[in-house]
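# step 3/5: fold
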Amino acid sequence: MAIGQKLEEARNRKGISIREASESTKIRGDYLSAFESGNFDLKLPEVYLRGFIRVYARFLGIDPESAVSDLSLELGVSQNKSAKKPLGTISNHDANEVKRDQPTVSSNSTNKPGRSFLSPNLMLVSLSLVGFLLVVIAIIFISKSPDPNATEGSIEHTSAPSVRETESIASSQNILEQNLVQSVSAERMLTLAAIGPIDRLIISDEGRTPKIFHEFKNLSSGWEKTIPFTTSFRCYSSSLENIRFAVDGGAEKQVSGQGAGNFRWIP
């Protein structure tokens, strides 16, 4: 079963929507829909894809490593399908045509006296090969010569990594992927709309250090703006009753209060 179908069936068994899964995993909803439909051509580095699939599979109760293996298999199949035939290949038919066009040489032909069996080009190639072999032999001889600075009797052993080292490397890779997923999925989108005049509006991104502020003045009814933020935000409005907001394309929300004041959004 394809990894996309496994993810979709697991989500349906839990009885949750794409939007609910997106809010819980902090992964964009359009990415989750693409994963379930088997579309992984999202212009994302492969390490992000693996990290997203691992997080989503763990959330749905699927073995993360098995899900990543299924993803690698699907990515490999799609790459093989898109592989092109290498240039310069000759089919059997073409090879037979080449052989048919080559002139035949009689075994009874004799060489003219005073003429070399090798053409000048072949002689040049032969000399080049001989020179190359001599250089290779010299390099091998130098590399095998003893190091004068080495301590007598000391032998350096290079062994393959142990099982514990291999597990440590895999664990470090998983941590790296999770950090990358968190750095990408942590950014959210805030949509602001004015249903009446607002003299001053200030947005503070509380999840960044130092904080990032967005300030707008003299807003009229019908004004809209979408800005990114991280984790949470604080908003000051000179007219709280005239401001509406939505997070990550969700339902539009009304702010309680009248006149100037602040409100804060925390997931």
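# step 4/5: annotate
The beta strands are 187-194, 198-205, 212-219, 224-230, 233-237, 243-247, 253-254, 261-265.
# step 5/5: archive (pending)
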